[in-house]
Amino acid sequence: AQSVTQPDIHITVSEGASLELRCNYSYGATPYLFWYVQSPGQGLQLLLKYFSGDTLVQGIKGFEAEFKRSQSSFNLRKPSVHWSDAAEYFCAGSTGTASKLTFGTGTRLQVTL
Amino acid sequence: DTEVTQTPKHLVMGMTNKKSLKCEQHMGHRAMYWYKQKAKKPPELMFVYSYEKLSINESVPSRFSPECPNSSLLNLHLHALQPEDSALYLCASSQGQAVSGNTIYFGEGSWLTVV
């Protein structure tokens, strides 16, 4: 079955430290992959997306993600985390002409000062 | 401007009430979506409208009734809901229905509590 997996339910990092959130996918074809962020009580904001081409994707708020076909991964990274980055992060994917996004279970990021 | 506007932000309704959630976008998008999100869970797709026609219904109970009056508006009519329907309801839109080449933009959501 086509799926997106986020292995980490909860991650805590110190402000200023680097961050990597993991996302693994399982699709037969090259997937279209997204990272969304959701602050408490808010909707989802798109951070970045991968459709094709360059495997290193730059997004908003200083985030980037790298598509690695060999590892079936699309991990989200940020070199220096700010306290305002504390939120829930969702990886999502789909393929081809599908209109349905499949979301991972999310990773809650806590930032300590 | 990538904005999807949802009203109301909060709604409390009884199990016998009839209410509606509203969603509006002015990005010229032709696909619109309703998602349901329970606490600490990812969003789950409910309905997809493409060019104002219902194209996907993810086996949603009939107490949820979507409507797309025009290309900018999407409603979700609620009737005889159950307490377990309490959730955050997210509206979204995209240029086209296929995920390939299209980005889905989400609204802030409407918090629904059924009492």
Subunit arrangement of the protein: heterodimer
Coarse structural class of chain B: mainly beta
**Tally of DSSP β-strands of chain A:** 12
pLDDT below 50 for ≥5 consecutive residues: which ranges of chain A? none
What's the overall geometry of chain B? globular
Which class do the helix and strand fractions of chain A yield?
mainly beta
Q: What is the mean predicted local confidence, pLDDT of chain B?
A: 93
Overall helicity of chain A: under 10%
Number of helices in the DSSP assignment of chain A: 0
Overall body shape of chain A: globular
Written as H for each helix and E for each strand, in order along the chain, the element string of chain B is EEEEEEEEEEE
Q: What radius of gyration of chain A results from the CA coordinates? A: 13 Å
Number of strands of chain B: 11
How much of the polypeptide of chain A forms β-strand, as a percent range? over 45%
Kindly report how far apart the N and C termini of chain A lie: 41 Å
Largest sheet of chain A: 6 strands, mixed
Return residue spans of chain B where pLDDT drops below 50 for at least 5 consecutive residues.
Answer: none
Question: How are helices and strands ordered from N to C of chain A?
Answer: EEEEEEEEEEEE
* Average pLDDT rating of chain A: 92
Q: Give a short account of the largest sheet of chain B.
A: 7 strands, mixed
Topology:
The complex is a heterodimer of chains A (113) and B (115).
Chain A: E1 3-5, E2 10-14, E3 19-21, E4 24-26, E5 32-38, E6 44-50, E7 56-58, E8 64-68, E9 73-78, E10 87-94, E11 102-103, E12 107-112
Parallel strand pairs in A: 2-12
Antiparallel strand pairs in A: 1-4, 3-9, 5-6, 5-10, 7-8, 8-9, 10-11, 10-12
Chain B: E1 4-7, E2 10-13, E3 18-25, E4 31-37, E5 44-50, E6 53-57, E7 64-70, E8 73-79, E9 87-94, E10 105-106, E11 110-114
Parallel strand pairs in B: 2-11
Antiparallel strand pairs in B: 1-3, 3-8, 4-5, 4-9, 5-6, 7-8, 9-10, 9-11
